[in-house]
Amino acid sequence: MAINGSKPSDMKIAFYSPLKSPDHPVPSGDRLMARLLIDALARAGHEVAVASHLRSFTAGPDGEGRAAIEQAAGAEVERLSALWQAAGGAPDAWFCYHPYYKAPDLIGPELARRFGLAYVTAEASYSNRRNQGLWAENQQRLAQTIGQAAVNICLTRRDRDGLAAAIPDGRYALLQPFIDPSPFVAADPAPKRHALVAVAMMRPGDKMESYRMLAAALARLRHLPWTLAVAGDGALRGEVEALFSAMEGGRIAWHGERGTAEIAAILGASAVYAWPGTGEAYGLAYLEAQAAGLPVVAQATAGVPEVVRHGVTGLLTPPGDVDAYAAALERMLTDDAMRQDMAVAARRFVIEECSLERAARRLDEILRRYVRGRP
């Protein structure tokens, strides 16, 4: 259904995610946000089609595999050019989600030049520290694209400020991170008092560091009768389980990878969402937990403060401080009144400020200003 009085299919939008296509088989926050953006654009009355499934991701700066990706990208440009010409016209805009130095958009900028399309990015990121080797070339491309884009939609103030500092001539607009809260508010929560929960994939890097920090913090809290439900799976499941192996039997429940409805049920039976969030861009799982009526205990790092309000919907601790994190968990587990107040505030925050419907309205406002209103 269209919103704000817009007509159905108000704009035709070609959507592209160079890091991970919306239909990629491996779940992640990146894939989920791509799907949510498509849904929000459609709810705003726009006709959205995934233009390409090409993944431009390169793990290292040595260029291995880059030639093949460049060749495939060139073929995609020609394929889409022929397709649009045969259809009698191009879309109104190219919408690129999450281009960054490891996954640049090698398709959209050329198509925008050929067809005069409005070029839009969402969650683009730029890091001066990556100006070396192949990544320097990708960074140069990214900076040029961001500077010329009709608008760059930023999901956190941190990202917007970083982009604006690096590319001051760009046009930027803020969009609050959002979810579809309906699966998580469908039933009233029935939390067990000392039940903690975490939902995260088990992979190297920041996820593994968060698991390490969580295990270390919980080891300091053996005097409390907490339990922990873990929903998630991945290549490092054995290593993650080993981190908690010294805990008493019955403390940890390993649920593996679960679908949305199952995760909503697990959240609804829990009292506190415990996830340190090392390096999180923002963390859609935090919004899902809060929609389910759970306060959060996390670190005040990266984009987490954009989705968890310290002292209102959760507690945020200094990055890397395991003692502070353990103390925050203990406070949340033992202060029933605070926890219950935060649970109510958390659900209200997501419903009122981070919903799919609100995001659809905001996206429509941005596109009407920067795409429809551009010279």
From TrEMBL:
Q: Which Pfam families match?
A: Glyco_trans_1_4
State the UniProt keywords alphabetically: Transferase
SUPFAM superfamilies associated with the record: UDP-Glycosyltransferase/glycogen phosphorylase
Domain of life from the UniProt record: Bacteria
- Offer an example of a GO molecular function term for this protein: glycosyltransferase activity
Identify the InterPro entries for this entry: Glycosyltransferase_grp1
Instruction: Tell me the PANTHER family matching this sequence.
Output: SULFOQUINOVOSYL TRANSFERASE SQD2
Q: What is this protein called?
A: Glycosyltransferase involved in cell wall biosynthesis
